[in-house]
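> run fold DUF3052 domain-containing protein
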Amino acid sequence: MAASTDPGATRGAPDRFGFTSGQVIQEFGYDDDVDLGLRDALAAVTGTDLVDEDYDDVTDSAIVWWREEDGDVADLADLLITAMSALDDGGLVWVLVPKAGRPGHVTPADIADAAQTAGLQPTTSIAAAPEWLGVRLAARGRGR
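> ok
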């Protein structure tokens, strides 16, 4: 799967994430197949570069790039718990998976199972980029 570098390919996607200027977004699962145009667009919206997995301060949100070969449902749940550990109250986690029919696709049921184990629930999904689906997760009971 080739990484997209065309910012036009992700037009409108950053708005659907709900990020705003000044927010710190922590990124997990970065690899050579991520959508670079989406990453650049998210950084442009927030005015800050995405921070990596080793960032050790409070964050406003997290994005998790996840592919089937990255592990099973338990592995994803563990990563979601890690991603939540630095989140400010009300912070969201977005799981980005290859779209259906593409290599590495992860089913919505697997994402939901992992989310439940981590104390989260899927609230919405979006076409995040040409090759990627975004699933928004929020803490259960927050109603966000």
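The first helix runs from residue 13 to 17.
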